[in-house]
Predict the structure.
Amino acid sequence: MDLRPVTDPVRSFLYCAGGWACVGLAVLGSILPLLPTTPFLLLASWCFYRGSPRIHAWLHRSPVFGPTLDDWHHYRGIRRGMKRRAIAMVTGVVALSLLLNSLPGWLRWAAFALVAIGLYTIWSLPTLPDDAPPAPRTVAE
C-alpha cells in the first residue's frame, strides 16, 4: 500500500474533504457521548497526510489536536487525565439523557449497551501518566 502524499489534484481534494469531515466528526465527538474523538483525529491526520502535507502539519501543530496526535504517534496511548475526563463526560451526559427522555425501555437498554462498549474501548486504550514527558513533535514546527 502506497502511503505517500498523492499528486493528482482530484484525489488530493478527496483526501482533504475526507480529512475535514473527520475533523468535524472529531469536534462533534468531543461534545456527543457516543461519537469517538481520537479515531477521527487519527483518520483526519492520515487523510491530510495523503492529500495536503500543509494541512497535515497544521493539524499536528494545533494546540487543541496536536498534543493528542503526538501522544498517540509517539506513545500509542492517551493521558490518564484525558481518559478520566472522557469517561466522566460520557457517563454524565448519557445518564442525564437516559433519565430525562421518554424512550421505550428496550431503546434505553440498547443505548446503555452501546455506551458500555464505548466506555470499555476508552478504558482499554493504553494509558499514559499525566506527568509523562510531552511527546516529541511529529511534524516540524
User: Anything to note?
Assistant: The chain has a mean pLDDT of 85. The chain has one domain: 9-128.
